[in-house]
Structures are given as C-alpha cells and as structure tokens.
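Researcher: Next entry in the queue.
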Amino acid sequence: MSFASDPIGTLRRLAREQGEVAQFEWNGKRCYLLSNPRLIQRAFTHHDLHKRPGQAPSHCLLGNGLMTSEGDLNREQRKLLRPLFAAGERPRWQQIVRQQVEELATEWSDGQQVVSLQEFGRLSMAVACRVLLDRRLAEEGLIHRVLEEVLQNPLAEVRPTLDEIADSLLRSGKGPLVEALLSVPLDDELRRDEIITMLLGAHETTATTMAFCMRMLALYSSDASAHQVVGETLRLYPPGWLVARLVDEDLDLDELRLQAPCAVLMSAMVNHYREDLWENPHLFRPERFPDHPASGTFFPFGGGRRICIGEALAWVEAEETIDYLRNRWIFDPLDRGPVQLLPLASLRPACGLPARLRRLHPRHRADPSAIQSGSAGGEER
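Model: Structure for this entry, 381 residues:
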C-alpha cells in the first residue's frame, strides 16, 4: 500500500499505527499527519501555515482566485467576496434552489435511468449562476463538461475556454459577483481567476454531496431531518477529504515541534471515521449528527481562516434539495454495492452513481416504510 495508489487507506493506517501525530515522507518531503482535533484546529488558524505552491495543477486552472491565493491577496479577496455569502442571502438562496430543483424534476420520468452526479451537477451549476450572476448562462453545460475534463486530466488545457466566458461576463458588468469584482481596482486576469474559481467551486462539491444524500436515502430508511441527512453524508463523504499546509520555517504548534521544510496534513477521511470520536463510524446514522460537532472532529469544508467561503450556501442548497426530493423521488442505485471513491482535489465517486428514478405517490410521501430498511452505510472505499 502506498500514498500514491491508496492515499485514504495509507493515512488511516498511519494514524492507527502512530497515533494522533504521524510522520512519513512523500516525494522527499517530511509530512506530519494530524488527527488530534485540538492540533487540527490550531493548524487551521495558524498564520504561518500556507497552501501549496503556485505550480500545482489547481493554480493552472484557477490562477490566483480565492481558493489558491495566499497572504494579503487572499485576505482582500475574502473581504470583497464575503458579502455574496452573507447570512442575509439565505432566503434568496432557498427560493432559487427550490425553483431550480422543481424545474429539474419536471424533466424526469418514473423508471428513467440517470447518472446522479450529472443530474445534480446540472442543478448546482444552475444555482451557482443564479446566486452569483443573477441569471442562467447558455454556457452552463460547457462549464460543467470542462470541469469534468479537468477532473479526469488535471493538465488539460481548458483555461482559454473559461477565460472567454469570464471575459463575456465582465463585459456585461451584471451580477453580484461581477459587480463586486468591478467595484475595486483589479486587473482583468485576477477578475477572470475569481469568476472561474467561484463558478467551479460553487457547484462541483455540492453536486457530489446531493448525489450521495439521495443514494443513502434510497439504501437506508431514515426520518431524520434534511440537515441531519446532509450532515451525516458530509461526514461519510467529505468533499474536502484532505487539507495540506506547508511549513517554511521551524515552528511550534502547541507542544508539537514542526521541522521545516515540511507539510502538515489533516484528513476528514481519517477523523470522520475515528471510532473514539464517532460511534460505529462506518454506519449511516443521520439521527446522531449534532448541530455543532466539536472543532477538529468534523471538517468537510476545511476550517479556520481558509474555510470554504461557500459553506453556508452548500448547506442550504443540499438541505433544500433533499427536503424537496426525498418524498417525491427515490434514486434507486443500479449498483447497491461499494462505491469506488476518487480522492482528487475533492472526494467524488468514480462511477457517477447511476440510478433508476422511482416516483413516490402522494400516499407514500413521508412514509419511511416506502424505502428499504437498514442502518449500515459508509461501506464505500
């Protein structure tokens, strides 16, 4: 077993064998794997820890957008974009999500075979465009296909296509995201980086979460709230499965001495499955999901000052979608066995989660007996 061929299995083995601070070497660099919740929270908030260097594939795609930028630039970008994701926007998001999921569902028919990830990708892209741009885009399908191409081949040359779309949006001058970017003195390259980062980041991970939610509801009966279902699904299948930070100079992280140069790793696929933190962690039990899990035990969107800026939107979108669909449609998996997981930039299923749609009649709505009973989940590897 190696980190390259099985990163999740390797990290779990290291945590079992070495405990809450594990050391190993990867590509000639010393790495520390933290699974101590307190140390993880300290690492998330420590100002001397930074992200990957600029030559990483993500920088080729996103440039210096919020997800990849560092230091003062990142802080200024977050300050500029934070109002787009403010709590006061929640009612608007809820209305948009409900309208879009209703529109999507009108295209479905009883017994239709679908690829769940594609269907929810269409939904989340539509929501992202309406939230960030106040309108749908004719290029939504193109953007989604480009993202899929990059996920399969991180070195794919797709920036020209995305830059053309971003330039068109900037010329229009319309939409909350574009207006925010035009309100401050930025060069157009950085504006394009930010548009691409926001459109891609706002939809891909949420689509995966919604697809997994509907799979789990089809496999295992539950009358838990949509919030609990989404939370437990995020625990089992965290989009941000691995967070890496770099150390350029020796520093003390509480009692831990980090010797530079090194990398600090925190993995939700380790901590979300710790038996001392979560009872029977491989089981799908949404009713046990708390409103506010302890820091360092649950971090599907990262944490600290670099936490995903769209986390609140992702929760609203997933909860509203599951709340609407769970009593109207069942996504019966075509393959009910374990799902192969791809630990890429975000965690996603290799198969796209193909399913057969089953319409629930009104008399079956809100009736858990209409769904197969069972309590085991998280069997995927």
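Model: The mean pLDDT is 91.
Researcher: Noted, moving on.
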